[in-house]
From TrEMBL:
The chain crosses the membrane at residues 34-57, 77-95, 107-126, 146-163. The lineage of its organism: Bacteria, Bacillati, Actinomycetota, Actinomycetes, Propionibacteriales. This is Putative membrane protein. Keywords: Membrane, Transmembrane, Transmembrane helix. It comes from the Bacteria. Signal peptide: none annotated. Residues 1-25 are annotated as: Disordered.
Amino acid sequence: MSGTQPRDSGPRDRVEGGGIPYSRPPYDGTGRSILAGVLIGMGVAAFVDETLFHQLLHWHHFYDRSTPAAGLVSDGYFNAAGWLAIVGGLFMYADLHRRQATVPKRVWAGGLLGWGGFQVYDGLFQHKVLGLHQIRYGVEILPYDLVWNLTGVLGILVGLVLLRGAPRAIAGR
């Protein structure tokens, strides 16, 4: 095909302007590794919450302040949002892998931060502030709230510990 430029396949020596060669620095995927992990972690937490507590145990719906039909519809939107987060995070992860810029320790840290952040946000803001639903109805709620929120805090703390210090080598290098 005439007139087409070759596709840029990554960092390599180039000549620009005055013929001075330079090399593009390798892509640092640290921040995107964390973000990919956060999206995947949030999506997995939403999927487990939706599947276990909404569908299998029938403890609640995403929105319980209306009819059962409205609760089911809200569950559908919640499930879709969780899957969009997983798919978006996996696309970011695949792009990092293609660029050989994945930082696995940062992906895990982001995943735990996303999962724990989802738990705490859901348990405190959606349950207590907005009152969209409770973890369970007709029982003493405090033990459920403590387990839900403390496991989320634990995920956040472990994620923060993984963020400390230098990341291990970038995968594929």
